[in-house]
Design brief:
Length: 306
């Protein structure tokens, strides 16, 4: 395996991600693009096999990416893909050295995810839709906020995944992992209103039909959901750009703000690592700091004495 051609190694690794790990086409495409840049870099240096790639080469590659004006987050993603590739190769050849060890990407400034306040959620959701498609858009927004779903999970949901009696929905998340998430009353009411509009277009309605479809009866795409949520927010006079992940962030931050239970929020979001969920503790602190500034007598700003 140590003499395995890098291009062949990439093919095997992408097959592993698709067949064994169950990654989406989009994710696999990202790995192919990022690791393709590494192989192109190696080809220019006449490095063709995994065992002839060294840490100095990886550092030079990272420096090249930086000179190409890639953002620190993109460079970190490229380096992470390279680490994953060599972790995969070392499973069948433990003697193969890992050239990514000890190589660091530029630090990424920590940015908090954008979210919505409770009154903004009310502005978005407290309306009576006037058409079938607006009813669908409203129920999509309600479900995203109620269950904290990823966009891919929402688009992939079928009618049979929603249990209205138990008030839960079963979704397929990252790495083909399923989880069961509670669905709130307003979201169930909105979905029931949408289901009364079905069948729609040319669809043949069945138990495993998509939960959300277009006006022609086909499963909605991610781009459709993104565009319709943006339009829905504008329709209700919101200045903020509302996209699916904003509603997922709002779900997490509002739940954490009320409960303080980080582990529960981790489970509901489907995060494999709690460090991913911890970003919302910063959002919660921002809220507490805002309350403090507005309410505490000693926090009030006073005019300096002249």
């Amino acid at each position: 395996m140590s003499a395995l051609n890098l291009e062949d190694a990439l093919v095997q690794y992408l097959q592993y991600l698709e067949v064994i790990r169950g990654y989406s086409d989009h994710t696999i495409s990202n790995y192919r693009r990022d690791l393709g840049k590494l192989i192109d870099f190696c080809g220019a240096k006449n490095i063709t096999t995994a065992d002839t790639l060294h840490s100095a080469d990886i550092r030079q590659w990272v420096a090249t990416l930086s000179r190409d004006k890639l953002a620190p987050s993109s460079i970190q993603r490229h380096l992470s893909a390279a680490r994953s590739l060599f972790k995969f190769l070392r499973r069948t050849n433990p003697s193969l050295s890992d050239p990514t060890q000890g190589v660091r990407a530029p630090r990424v400034p920590r940015t908090l995810p954008k979210t919505l306040e409770a009154d903004q959620i009310t502005q978005l959701l407290d309306h009576h839709p006037e058409s079938a498609l607006l009813t669908r858009d409203h129920s999509i927004a309600e479900l995203l906020y109620s269950a904290g779903l990823r966009l891919s999970e929402l688009v992939g949901a079928n009618l049979c995944d929603l249990d209205r009696q138990e008030k839960v929905i079963t979704v397929l998340g990252k790495g083909q992992k399923t989880r069961v998430v509670p669905v709130g009353g307003p979201a169930l009411v909105a979905i029931d209103a949408w289901l009364k509009c079905r069948p729609i277009g040319n669809e043949v309605l069945g138990h495993d039909s998509p939960l959300f479809v277009t006006q022609t009866g086909n499963r909605v795409s991610t781009r459709t959901v993104q565009a319709r949520l943006k339009a829905l927010a504008a329709r209700h006079g919101m200045q903020q750009t509302v996209h699916p992940h904003v509603l997922r962030h709002a779900f997490a931050s509002h739940l954490l703000e009320s409960s303080g239970d980080l582990r529960a929020v981790q489970e509901l979001l489907g995060h494999a690592n709690i460090s991913t969920t911890q970003i919302y503790t910063h959002l919660d602190f921002q809220h507490l700091a805002k309350v403090y500034d507005q309410a505490h007598p000693r926090a009030q700003k006073t005019k300096p004495q002249s």
